[in-house]
Amino acid sequence: MKRTIVLLSGGIDSTTTLAIALAEHSEAYALSFDYGQRHQIEMEAARRVANSLGAKEHRVAKIDLRIFGGSALTDNVAVPKKRSEIEIADGIPVTYVPARNTIFLAYALAWAEVIQAADIFLGVNAIDYSGYPDCRPEFIEAFQTVANVGTKAGVGGRRFHVHTPLIKLSKAEIIRKAVELGVNLSLTHSCYDPSPEGLACGGCDSCLLRLKGFREAGIPDPIRYVK
Fold it and tell me: What is the 3-state secondary structure (H, E, C) of the chain?
């Protein structure tokens, strides 16, 4: 029975990635992170998604990246709102969390070693994304090399593979793929700065990219927004 680890935030990309992993593998183990992010509600979304799609197991690793700060998601820095597509695509925004995917993948790799899995799935995207350097193919390839030279399993002959099935898809294509796989997108959460009631703000980069994706896919967004 083939096992895989799937990094799950509860957003559209990671949810679709979990659905793809489940379609391709017998057992998918979902891993989420409570890392001190201001959008804590994504933990609830991740749990809903994992239960809905039938992950074999769902674990939440509690770490605190607030001790370093350096991001609007983990520090007392305002989340940018209402930026244009040109602004979103220009440079690395303040919502970038230093080394986040490196840290998350390291945890996934540790769990993969323990349960004897060789595959890790990550929902990064290099087209409709906010300029994060740890969402690029170069980073994924480099981490895969690290996994195979820096672990007992790797040097013992197990070949780790980091799968990024969405990396070349637009947000609209990802949404269509999710619908094709029967994903309930109303369970997902994307907003970086939700209201106290958990409603999406509709103005942060993540909300704007999500709304753009649904428009281009010709599908209504099923979640609720402040406005």
Answer: CCEEEEECCCCHHHHHHHHHHHHHCCEEEEEEEECCCCCCHHHHHHHHHHHHHCCCEEEEEECCHHHCCCCCCCCCCCCCECCCHHHHHCCCCCCCCCCHHHHHHHHHHHHHHHHCCCEEECCCCCCCCCCCHHHCHHHHHHHHHHHHHCCHHHHCCCCCEEECCCCCCCHHHHHHHHHHCCCCHHHCCCCCCCCCCCCECCCEHHHHHHHHHHHHHCCCCCCCECC
- Rg of the Cα atoms in the chain: 17
pLDDT of 131-157, one tens digit each? 788 999 999 999 999 999 999 999 999
Is the pTM higher than 0.90? The answer reads yes
29: left (phi over 0), alpha (psi -120 to 50) or beta: beta
> How confident is the model over 79-128, as pLDDT tens digits?
999 999 888 888 889 999 999 999 999 999 999 999 999 999 999 988 76
> What residue ranges define each of the domains in the chain, with the CATH number in brackets?
3-217 (3.40.50.620)
